[in-house]
Structures are given as structure tokens and as C-alpha cells.
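stage 2 :: seqdesign
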């Protein structure tokens, strides 16, 4: 089973590198008065990281809420 996981990780890494190489064009991202010009792949990676962080925070909050509710029962 470890070999399957290793192959999946290698495949995912390969697809990620391929995406980054094919999307070297730059775009401008603006937020309020702040703007920055970055490659598309970097913007997607940043959005993915922010999504992981916010999703992890929501999941941790839900787990904490459920545990707290079970303790008060």
C-alpha cells in the first residue's frame, strides 16, 4: 500500500510541476489599495494555502464545539 501512496504523491507532484511550468504568465492581483503582479501558478498556490488554512480552522472549531457539547451533556 505504501507504493500506491508513493506513486500518487509522485503523480500529484508531477502534475503540480507541469501546471507551474505551463502557467508562467503573470497576472495582477488587487486587494483594497494593494496590488501585486505574480505568476498564475504562484497565485493558485497561495489561494490553495489560504483555503487549507481556513478549512483547517473551521474543522478545528467544529471539533472543539462538538467536544464541548458532549462534555456538558
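stage 2 :: out
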Amino acid at each position: 500500500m505504501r507504493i500506491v501512496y508513493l506513486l500518487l504523491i509522485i503523480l500529484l507532484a508531477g502534475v503540480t510541476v507541469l501546471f507551474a511550468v505551463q502557467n508562467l504568465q503573470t497576472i495582477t492581483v488587487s486587494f483594497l489599495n494593494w496590488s501585486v503582479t505574480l505568476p498564475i501558478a504562484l497565485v493558485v498556490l497561495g489561494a490553495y494555502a489560504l483555503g487549507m488554512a481556513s478549512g483547517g480552522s473551521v474543522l478545528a472549531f467544529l471539533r472543539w464545539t462538538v467536544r464541548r457539547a458532549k462534555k456538558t451533556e
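stage 3 :: structure notes
- The first helix runs from residue 2 to 22.
- The mean pLDDT is 86.
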